Amino acid sequence: MARIVELEEGRILIDNKDISKMKLSELRQRITFIPQDPSLFTGSLKFNLDPKDQNTDEKIVQLLKEADLDNVFTNLEGSVDLNF
Description:
Helix content: 25-40%
Oligomer: single chain
Strand content: under 5%
Number of helices: 3
Radius of gyration: 17 Å
Largest sheet: 2 strands, antiparallel
């Protein structure tokens, strides 16, 4: 799906955009894969959510709240712990 191999026929549209017409770097930057198998990650929560360190802690916490996941990573003090 992220153009590991180029299509020989047909097309794949995401939000009405043909992915074969996009730069590969842009496509891979903008798409996220969520595996269906449970897996373990290395590093902190912040690193796994933002490996290129492009967002502030506040932005990450905001997005976790919007996804209703902040309660999963809340510490005993009641705040989201990105070092988890």
